[in-house]
Write a structure and sequence with these properties.
This protein is 49% helix and 15% strand. With 356 residues, it is an alpha/beta fold. Helix 3 (53-60) packs across helix 4 (64-76), helix 6 (113-120) packs across helix 8 (143-167) and helix 8 (143-167) runs parallel beside helix 10.
Length: 356
């Protein structure tokens, strides 16, 4: 039977069309969210309460006609509420941590820089699919790096020191006393700096291959006042020079590496006696069916264009990908010679794994 003669479930076809159209609307909606963020529209509404379009335009320094159209779009997306009698628009308090409060663990607008960078790199990705070549991290559009740093920063700020480190066996005590820590694949250094702020007696080394991210990390460390105990260096996960680390961390980075087993072996060789590896990875299930839903969809998209592409650029022929799952990650560390493996903590987005 040819595809043209297979009987269709009309209800299923119509439901899928609505789903696909919703995804198209979401692409436009993401751009609207970034506008609202960069223009301060959400923040004004959060601080002031319900406003008319004219009032919001005046308070934000924007043109009223543009603001009114943006507001109406936000109402149709159910991000804002509208009172037809007063003409005022309101940001519900439940939405404010996601849209308006920059220190919130769930603040999302900067993360839209990631799909923006993916679109801007479309031609390179098409070539990668057809040729099998990789795309190094540093060859993506610069909007990617700030977007990734911002996407992870607030979540780390909420959980890393308060929950994840205490969940590791004896690690927080070692840090309090004064430990030596490596943050491998540190990016802009937010995770490194959070630990340095919390544990002033310890010393930290952030390691990454991307020079502009290392430069940004140094600036962040200086601004945070931790430059006396944090060093950032441009090296690979397989050949950093130092050893004797009490703690080696991989924050959402191992799956990007071309040789994750080699990175784990290097970590094992670089650990001090009794040292620990903390591996933070996306909270993916081991079976594909376990990952169906918006979080899995988000991570598979990024994994296809960013994570696997970078790993392939480093010579991988079977990249882990961002949805590797705990079983595959455990096998990496077993192959690297680790004998202890434990899930220490988890969030809806992350697994926190301990290896020794």
């Amino acid at each position: 039977m040819s595809p043209t003669t297979i009987p269709l479930d009309e209800a299923k076809a119509e439901a899928f069309l609505h789903r696909a159209f919703a995804d198209l609307a979401a692409n436009s909606g993401g751009f609207m969210i970034r506008l609202g963020d960069q223009l301060g529209l959400y923040e004004v509404l959060d601080a002031a309460g319900p406003l008319t379009a004219t009032e919001l335009a005046a308070r934000s320094g924007c043109a009223e006609r543009y603001v009114r159209e943006w507001l109406n779009g936000q109402v149709t997306a159910e991000y804002l509420e509208h009172d037809a009698e007063t003409g005022r628009y309101a940001l519900p308090p439940e939405h404010a941590p996601v849209l308006a409060r920059r220190d919130s663990a769930t603040f999302l607008p900067p993360a839209y820089e990631i799909p923006a960078a993916m679109w801007l790199g479309e031609e390179r990705t098409l070539h990668a699919f057809r040729s099998g070549e990789g795309v190094p991290w540093g060859e993506h559009h610069e909007r990617l790096f700030c977007g990734v740093a911002a996407f992870f920063r607030n979540g780390y700020a909420a959980s890393l020191v308060a929950e994840w480190l205490p969940a590791l066996d004896g690690v927080a005590e070692r840090l309090e006393a004064g430990a030596v820590v490596a943050d491998v694949g540190c990016g802009h250094g937010h995770s490194t700096i959070l630990m340095a702020e919390a544990f002033p007696r310890s010393r930290f080394v952030g390691i990454d291959t991307h020079e502009s991210s290392i430069a940004a990390a140094r600036e962040h460390a200086a601004a945070a006042g931790v430059g006396d105990r944090v060093t950032f260096t441009t090296e690979t996960a397989q050949d950093y020079a130092q050893d004797g680390f009490d703690l080696i961390c991989f924050f959402d980075a191992l799956h990007d590496m071309g040789d994750p087993v080699g990175a784990a072996r290097q970590a094992r060789a670089a650990l001090a006696e009794g040292g620990t590896v903390m591996l933070v990875e996306p909270n993916a299930g081991d079976a594909l069916a376990d990952n169906v839903g918006p979080i899995g969809r988000l991570y598979y998209g990024a994994s296809t264009v960013l994570c696997c592409a970078h790993a392939i650029s480093e010579g991988s022929d079977d990249a882990l990908g961002a949805q590797a799952g705990e079983a595959r990650l455990a096998e990496v560390f077993r192959e690297a010679g680790f004998s202890h493996w434990r899930r220490a903590a988890e969030t809806p987005f992350n697994l926190v794994l301990e290896a020794r």
